[in-house]
Structure formats: C-alpha cells, structure tokens
Amino acid sequence: MRLFSLTLVLASIAAVVLAAPPFTFTKVDLKLLDESKAIDRELESRGLVFHDAAVDAHLTALGRSVVPPGELEFVEWQFHVLRDPMVNAFALPNGSIYINAGLLARAENDGQIAGVLAHEATHVANRHGYLANRSIRRKSFLMNAASWITWIPAGGVAGQIISWTASAGQVAVVLSVYGYSRELEQEADVSGLDLVKRAGRNPAQLARMMVLFDEKLEPEPVPILYNDHPRTRQRIDYLKQKLGIPDDLPAAEDRAYVLAMKPVIAQAVQLQIDCRRFRSAVAAAAKLVAAQPNDSGNLFLAAEAWRSLGPRRSRLSEHELTNAGLRAGYKSARKLTEDEEARQLAATDDGRVALQENRAKAEDLYGRAAALAPSSASPYLGLGALYQDEGKTADAIAAYRKYLELSPSGSDRDRVERRLAALSVGGGPK
Amino acid sequence: MTSRRSFACLIGLGLLGAPFAYGLWPHIQPKLKNGQVAIRTAIVLPARIELVKVGVHGAESMPEASEKLSATLYRLVSAELAARGVQLLPNPADPAPPDAVKYAIADLQAKYDNVGVQLRKNLDAIEKGKYSLGDRVATFEPARKADVIVFIRARGKNLSKAIWATGPLFATVSGAFQADIGLVDSHSGEVLAFLRTVLFKNPTAKTEDRFQPLIREAFREVPFPTPAAKN
Asked: Is the pLDDT of residue A313 over 90?
C-alpha cells in the first residue's frame, strides 16, 4: 500500500515535470514582443501591407478557423497580406501572421492557405519565435558575430521583406521570415495538419502547397522558408507519409479562390514584374485569365507579363534548374541591369526565338484586351511600348496617340508624351 | 571593382584612425554636370535607416532610434537642398497618405533598391548614365512638379562596449555608419547622382552636429541653383 502511494506520488510528480510547462515570459521575451509590435507598425507605415476589405475578411475567416483554441498570453491573432512578390509567409510572436502576395498568387485554393496559416499559427502558439531568440542569445559570441560582421547583401531582387529583414539585423525576426530550425518547422507542419483537420479541411492540401512552394519559377538560391530545396522536399515526404498519400497531389485550382483573391493576384503580377520575377508574373496572370478569360484587365496584366518576360522562357530550363544554373541566374540578376540582362539573352538563338514568341503573345493579349474594353487606354500604352521595343516607330506612335485620345489626363500622360517626343526625333529610347 | 575600391578606402580610413567622419564618393551623371538637366524642385522620400545594436548576445534592431534618425536625416537633407536654392515639395508620407499613395511610395522605394543592387556594384557607371528606375516614376503623382526624387538610405551598427573591447580598429571599421543619397530624375527615372557619407562615430549621439557637415560636403559638387557655401 505504501509502495503504491509512493508510486502514485512519483507518477504525479513525473506527470507535472514531463508535461509542457506553461511558457513564462522573461525580460528578453517581452522585448521581442515589443519589437514584433514595432515591426507591425513599420510594415504598415512603409506601405507593405495590402488592404482590401473583402480579401482581409476572407483571410481572417480562414485564419480564425485554424488557430489553436483558447486564449494565449500576449497573442492577438491578426492576418495580413504583404505586398511582396516572394512565395513566403511568416508569423511574429505577437500573433501577426503575414502572407505574401506572391504566395497567395501561387496557391490554388483556400485549403492550401488554411494549411499555411495553421503552420504559422503553430509557430506562434508554441512560442517558436521566443524559443529561437533565447537559443540564439545562448550561443557563443563567435556564432553571433556572423550576424553582424557579414554585410548582408540585401536587395530588391529578393523581394521587399527579404531585403528589409536582411538589413533589420534582429536575428529572431530574420528567422521568423526565413524559417526556423528543422525540428520547429516539423513541429509546425505536424501540428498544422491537426489544426487543418480540426477545421474540417483536407490536410492533404498542405502537402500540395509544399509542392507549390518547391516549384522554382525563378533563379533564387536564397534559403527562405519553404524554398530551401532539400528541406522542403523532405517536409513534403514526411507530410505525405503522415497522411498516407503515396504520390504528390494533382493541381487543385479553385476558380472561387482565384476570384476571391483577384485583387491580391493582380497586385502580385505588378510586384513580380517590378522585381524581375517575370515567370512568376506570367504564371499568376495566367490564373486570372483562366478564371475570367473575358476580363479586359486580366488580359492586359497577362500581356504586360509576357512583354516583360522578353527573351526568357516562361519556365526555367533543366540546366537553369540545377543548383549551378540557379546560382548563375541569380548572380546575373544581381549583377546586370534589367536592360543589360535582356540584351544579353536576346543575343542568343534561344533568346531571340523566345523574344519573338513572347512579343506575339503580348500583342495578341493587348489586342484582345482592347477589343473587350474599347474605351480602356491601358492596352494602347502596352502596345506602344511593345512596338517601340520592336522598332515599329509608326505603330508605336499610333498606339501612344490612341492612348492619349482615350485618356487625355491619365497618370501616364507625361511619360507617353515624352516617349512620343523621343520617337519623333528618331525612335530614341523609352 | 568600385565596391572593392570602396571597401579598401573604408579599411584605409579605419587604419588612419584619426578621421571620424567623411563625405565621400560623389557620382554625378554628365547630364546633370553639363546642365542638360537642372534641379530646381525636389521631393524627398522618407529615409530608410537600418540601425542595429550589436552586443555579445547578437544583433538587435533599434526601431525607435532608426525612426528618429530617419526623421533627422530627412530634415538635414531637405535643409541642405533648400539652402542650395532647391524648392522642396511636401513630404508625400506626412501626414499619412491614402493607401494608393502609400503603395506608390513603397513601390518607388523598392524600385530604387532593386536598381541599387547593381548600382552599388559599379558606382562609376552612374557617370555613364547606366542606371534608371524606368519612366514609370513619372506616374508618381506627388512628384509631378519635381525635377528629382531624393532617396536616402543608411545603415550602421551601434556596437556595445564589449564589442569595442575586441579592438577599436576592428570596431571602428565594422561599426561605420554609411548613408547614401540618390537623386533620380522624376520624369525619365535616370539616376542623376549618388552621394555617400560615412560616419565612424555613434550616429545616435549629436546627430545633427555630426551629419550636417557630412551632408553639406556630400552635396558640394552637385550643381544646384545656389553654389555650395565655402568652408
């Protein structure tokens, strides 16, 4: 009897010791919490948070359905769209979850977004940000030195958030954007599956989303979350194993999702063009066109994407997809200006062919956009630029004049007039 | 080549030890130098400052200090431009603008940073007119009446005493605060001038006193309506 009592007491003590202790906030954690709030304010004030009432409501509803139940100290769940073209998402320790426009444009349905949100919510609920921060601070001085000796070559070609966090210097924040340790990511994946199931959604869509993350449309050997090739592949494999799925899931494009996210996808196309992620822009615009083939705005965006693609193929070649190819492509994008890179590619046989084909596609799309909305000026601006690039001066002038006729006080008036002036003195540069 | 030269200069300055603040490397496009383009009106975009506190426990961002420094550099650059006879348009981000303007500012800043990746690798090419943000800058409504858009970037590390203890020379060089100012044609998008200053002191202390002469020096060779004051 005494032995039984002793066993019971020991078992109770063990249960208390082994059970996950409640997270106790230290001074360092509270400082990180304050910084998270400051980051929220900073992203907002820098114009990096996208606002659209319908999209925000949609994302919030999705997010609320997959966050862990119950109250969490110092966590206020918020779901935001970031105006960033990279395929990424991250969560701050205070419960702010950010999904990039690039990711929303890559996803196929709500289930995949719910999976991403559940994954990020697990990082928050399990306090991964704080744990990573504590771990970093415990590491030796020499280890930390790397974080400040290195002058991180931040740059827009990698997207605004990457650029910003790379220079922000706060290692815990950088981790939250680039991805935590393998163990913490696995924990978030597995718990994420449970949260998605609890919300009544198909957890297999998280595995499908991982496949989409792993799809390389651009040369970008930046080890960001989800895009670190071997790790992402491993994660897909263990998710499939856990779900009992033998093969990768097929595409599950949902038109309703694309229509709900249309403003973000349209935004992503423009951001991708601006950041020289032309293939991603073509793919995102194609989704819009597939969902609404007779929408003039969608056709115009697709035309812009194909024109910007210039002498590139819409998919990376097998050689470009190798590690060496990806590195070379990324290096080239960092070293050469957009014009220099385009000129260099156009000088190759394949580049010349691609340029011709892409221009033909763009011209066709501009034409269809103009036919569907005869009073819309934008297609003529695009056509003017296309013809000017092709050296068809008379056609370019006609298209620009048509633009001015349809939009005499448009925001592009100034540059169109300058282009016309340049063309009239001998087809000068845009 | 240029970045290697810049780095060598930085090391050289650190080795000299004595100087603690410099206005360096003005790169001016010939169009601006020879008067083909004149700067009479400018709009200054909010400065982007990344200040990091570095101690033995790693790096920590300094959002409040960065924000304060951003405001100070914005003010000092604007004051110097005004002193040189340039008419300034209002800060497009103050008061907080509607989303569309906020996005336009963000996109413009991102475009500048995109081009900045190549530009910083070959600063000499600015003088050949190689870099442009593209003529879409002309659609930025707040800059419609401006000749140039001014971009301010700066980054630096505030080192703790423990880091300084690792060696003043090393700490001086790695703790340098670098500020870049870019002048971009608000119609064509061409980068007209790129100016750089380096401060080897804590940028958060005596900020105005330390930066004012640096900024004045940085702008010295840029042709503005009013010539630079003599030293």
From this structure: yes
From residue A402, give the alpha-carbon distance in Å to each of A370, A375, A378, A380.
11, 10, 10, 7
Can you give the residue ranges of every domain in chain B?
3-219
Q: Does A51 touch chain B (CB under 8 A)?
A: yes
* Nearest-by-Cβ selection for A46 from B58, B61, B106: B106
The DSSP code for B49 is E
Nearest Cα residue in chain B from A412: B139
Query: Which positions in chain A touch B106 (Cβ < 8 Å)?
Result: 46-48, 83, 160
Residue with tokens 């066709």: A364
A346, A368 in Cβ contact below 8 A?
Answer: no
For residue A220, pLDDT over 80 is answered with: no
> Nearest chain A Cα to B135, which residue?
A415
Edge-to-edge strand list for the sheet holding A89-91: A49-50, A78-82, A96-100, A89-91
Collect all residues with Cβ–Cβ distance below 8 Å to A317 and sequence separation of at least 6. Answer: A325
ipTM for the assembly? 0.84
- Give the architecture (CATH level 2) of B3-219: 2-Layer Sandwich (3.30)
pLDDT, one tens digit per residue, over A120-158 is 999 999 999 998 888 777 664 444 444 443 333 333 344
The amino acid at residue A236 is I
Token readout for A422 is 């340049």
Give pTM, 2 decimals: 0.87
Q: How far is CA A126 from the centre of its chain?
A: 24
**Dist. CA A110–CA A125, nearest whole Å:** 22
Answer whether A156 sits within 8 Å of B144, measured CB to CB: no
Which of A46, A92, A139, A173 to mutate against chain B (most B CBs within 10 Å)?
A: A46
- B117:A153 CB<8 A: yes
